[in-house]
Amino acid sequence: MSDWELPPDASIPGLACFRELLVPRILAFESFRQIIEQGPGANAALRDMAALSHKIAGVAAALGYPGTGDHAAAVETTIRHGLAAGENTAEIWRTTMPLLESLLDDMERILDD
Amino acid sequence: MRILAVDDDPVFLEQILAALGALGYHDVVTAHSAEQALGEIARAMPPFDCFLFDIQMPGVSGVELCARLRKLELYRRTPVVMVTAMSGRAFIDGAFAAGATDYITKPLDRFELKARMGMAARLHEEREQLAAFARQNGLSLSAAEMQVDFDAPILIPGVDRAIEIMALENYLLTLGRKSAYSYAALGIHVANAASIYARADAPTFVAMLNDVALAICGGLKTVQVLFAYAGNGNYVGLTRRTISFDQEELEQNINYALSDFKDIYEADRLPLPEVRVGELVRGSVFSLSRPTKILDQAIRAAQPTERMMPKSRLLVG
Question: What pLDDT was estimated at residue A13?
Answer without folding.
Answer: 87
